[in-house]
Design goal:
Layout (H helix, E strand, L loop, with lengths): L1 H26 L5 H25 L9 H22 L6 H12 L3 H44 L5 H13 L1 H14 L9 H11 L2 H12 L2 H6 L1 H25 L4 H12 L5 H8 L4 H29 L3
Helix pairs in contact: 1-5, 1-9, 1-14, 2-5, 2-7, 2-8, 2-9, 2-13, 3-4, 3-5, 4-5, 4-11, 4-14, 5-6, 5-7, 5-12, 11-12, 11-14, 12-14, 13-14
Length: 319
């Protein structure tokens, strides 16, 4: 069990260090608000689309034995999204906050951190399941995030609003990258089969997404914001790291999932909120300050909660 905690710790601490570097650079005036705005646009318009494209085409094409798991994960994400919309939208007055809260709970850091953690806990079999699931889950995450943030960014709801939301979805760089990647995926063309010069360029640009986004988050995060959003952060962290993974694992177990497949469910729903959610909130009419706080707090607290889930499931003999 200690190895699971160490793995989570080693994966999470570098993210916190990079964010701290962003704060230091901002305090030393090495970077300023103009740099952060430009960097966020770069990540949103170029780096994240390249990362998403490569992640989708890196997913496993072999769905044998994994199709029930994929169907469960997709259904669970859609149900979770619907429940969150029904619960959060009527109760949170600030719609920009509501959209970020919903995104912060349903969207996990599965692509960057989750798949590697899944392999560490469940071996290559779990990794294959995770890769296959990620090819479907990651596009769904991004589409739902664009929809809810655009919807919450509008003060009124009309036919004109629907047209505007639809246009924003079509023009969103992440959505464009998804639709560019899916034909290759379903045709069986994987990332490694594409020309080397192309994948090298895409991979280099993709590698900028995480560190640049974290530097931007770290630069803008302040302790006063923690107190300003304390209730929202407490609710999101409890739901994201405890309530949702507990419900998902319980449901998966009742449906007969165990071993590597249950590991995938636990990690998919139990990892921290995706770093890209901050960039998405900033560019899609959300509250970027709260989004950054959610990323940082769920990243810190996900290490002990994942360790606890792993310990309990191992003790019960489920994984």
């Amino acid at each position: 069990m200690a190895s699971a905690f160490i793995f989570a710790f080693d994966a999470i601490v570098p993210l916190i260090i990079i964010a701290c570097v962003g704060k230091i650079l901002y305090r030393l005036n090495v970077i300023d608000d103009r740099f952060i705005d430009a960097a966020d646009r770069l990540v949103f318009c170029v780096c994240l689309p390249c990362l998403l494209f490569s992640q989708i085409l890196s997913g496993s094409a072999d769905l044998s034995g994994g199709l029930p798991l994929i169907l469960f994960c997709v259904s669970a994400v859609l149900i979770l999204f619907a429940v969150l919309c029904a619960a959060v939208l009527p109760s949170v007055k600030d719609r920009r906050v509501a959209g970020v809260v919903i995104q912060g709970i349903f969207r996990s850091n599965f692509a960057i951190f989750g798949i590697a953690f899944t392999v560490s806990l469940g071996g290559n079999t779990a990794g294959a399941y995770a890769s296959a699931a990620a090819a479907f889950i990651i596009p769904i995450y991004n589409i739902l995030a664009v929809v809810i943030l655009n919807y919450c960014g509008e003060r009124s709801f009309s036919l004109q609003t629907l047209k505007k939301i639809g246009l924003n979805i079509i023009k969103n760089p992440l959505i464009i990258s998804i639709f560019l990647a899916l034909p290759f995926f379903f045709a069986g063309v994987r990332y490694g089969a594409l020309p080397a010069f192309f994948t090298a360029a895409v991979s280099d640009v993709s590698a900028l997404a995480l560190p640049v986004a974290l530097i931007s988050i770290g630069a803008k995060v302040t302790f006063t914001d923690f107190f300003r959003y304390k209730y929202a952060l407490a609710a999101v962290n409890f739901a994201k790291l405890i309530a949702v993974p507990l419900a998902a694992v319980t449901a998966a177990r009742l449906l007969g999932f165990d071993g590597p497949r249950l590991v995938v469910v636990m990690v998919l729903f139990g990892t921290s909120t995706a770093v890209s959610s901050y960039i998405m909130a900033k560019n899609q009419s959300g509250d970027p300050i709260l989004a950054g706080q959610i990323v940082m707090t769920t990243t810190v607290f996900s290490a002990p909660t994942l360790f606890l889930f792993t310990f309990v499931l191992k003790y019960l003999g489920w994984i």
